[in-house]
Amino acid sequence: MKRIAVLTSGGDAPGMNAAIRAVVRKGHHHGMEVVGVYRGYTGLIQGDFVSMNLGSVGDIIHRGGTVLYSARSEEFKTPEGQAKAVENLKKQGVDALVVIGGDGSFRGAQKLTQQGIPTVGVPGTIDNDIPGTDFTIGFDTAINTVIECIDRIRDTATSHERTYVVEVMGRDAGDIALWAGLADGAESILIPEAPHDLNEIVERLERGSRRGKKHSIIIVAEGVGSGVDIGRRIKEKTGAETRVTVLGHIQRGGSPTAFDRVLASRMGAKAVDLLLEGKKDQMVASRRNQIVGLDFEEAFAMKHHPDMSIYNLASILAI
Ligand code: ADP
């Protein structure tokens, strides 16, 4: 294996740069050339490659986003698009590819392996929703951003004795809401994986108020529904002042935490090791703090579940 390529695809996540850096530096450590591909699969189809030497990934470990840019490509989902991508990789003399992205990107990676380009995946998404890995790159940074925002909201919530509803990201997975909710002592956490009862939430609010609580925080994962709508319904039921904050894309940016930088460095390096061992059609996974290779097929057969013990604990502690 002489020459490998790396790209970032799908939704970006803080720590992707640290993963790119690890792939480039680990590749060079083993005497390989590394090329970057701009804008994910779009760049593969357009032949948008850049040679990456050791210096090209200097000063990026602490930066959010991705220096290779990211994109979604409908064309890559077609056999013609994939054929163009394979042709460009062969023209560039690329022996193998590392795809940093979410599970959609991994489906694309599998197509490339099937067409003769050994490809491995590195899980990068703030949602932590990739089956087979305990953590994804970017999740820790996102929950730290969320709790920083909620700490600020809590200050003003206390001053004005209000209920705040905070909508966080997570269309299908409640992990961000769950972890941030426990870390922030939220009164209620609404996630797509668990049913909620608005009457029970209101009772909880009223119990807290009787005990002298000055404010309440309710965290809603976007997959449950609109935070604005839930805030309005709570206000109708309680008659109390209720404000809503939708955190939005603030959660996707920012300098990665130490945890994400370490995870990304370990995962990027492991991707190179897997390729050197002749592995393909695999993703890198963090399982019980071990960084391992896992067959895409095995991962695709699994379903991601958030840790419901955290949900139950948060409910007990936020009485
Ligand atoms: P993520 O990787 O964050 O889950 P997407 O689901 O949008 O993001 O996937 C990123 C890109 O991966 C898509 O734009 C597409 O180019 C490619 N992709 C997704 N699913 C497939 C598939 N089934 N076959 C081939 N390519 C796919």
UniProtKB/TrEMBL annotation:
Residues 3-275 form the Phosphofructokinase domain. Gene3D superfamilies: 3.40.50.450, Phosphofructokinase domain. Allosterically activated by ADP and other diphosphonucleosides, and allosterically inhibited by phosphoenolpyruvate. The keyword Transferase applies. Its EC number is 2.7.1.11. The active site is at 127 (proton acceptor). GO terms for molecular function: 6-phosphofructokinase activity; AMP binding; ATP binding; fructose-6-phosphate binding; identical protein binding; metal ion binding; monosaccharide binding. It holds the Pfam family PFK. One of its GO terms (cellular component) is 6-phosphofructokinase complex. ADP binds at residues 21-25, 154, 185-187, 211, 213-215. It is found in: Cytoplasm. InterPro entries: ATP_PFK (IPR022953), ATP_PFK_prok-type (IPR012003), PFKA_ATP_prok (IPR012828), Phosphofructokinase_CS (IPR015912), Phosphofructokinase_dom (IPR000023), PKF_sf (IPR035966). Its cofactor is Mg(2+). It is an enzyme of class 2 (transferase). Keywords: Allosteric enzyme, ATP-binding, Cytoplasm, Glycolysis, Kinase, Magnesium, Metal-binding, Nucleotide-binding, Transferase. Mg(2+) binds at residue 103. ATP binds at residues 11, 72-73, 102-105. It catalyses: beta-D-fructose 6-phosphate + ATP = beta-D-fructose 1,6-bisphosphate + ADP + H(+). Substrate binds at residues 125-127, 162, 169-171, 222, 243, 249-252. Pathway: Carbohydrate degradation; glycolysis; D-glyceraldehyde 3-phosphate and glycerone phosphate from D-glucose: step 3/4. GO terms for biological process: canonical glycolysis; fructose 1,6-bisphosphate metabolic process; fructose 6-phosphate metabolic process. Homotetramer. Catalyzes the phosphorylation of D-fructose 6-phosphate to fructose 1,6-bisphosphate by ATP, the first committing step of glycolysis. Belongs to the phosphofructokinase type A (PFKA) family. ATP-dependent PFK group I subfamily. Prokaryotic clade 'B1' sub-subfamily. This is ATP-dependent 6-phosphofructokinase.
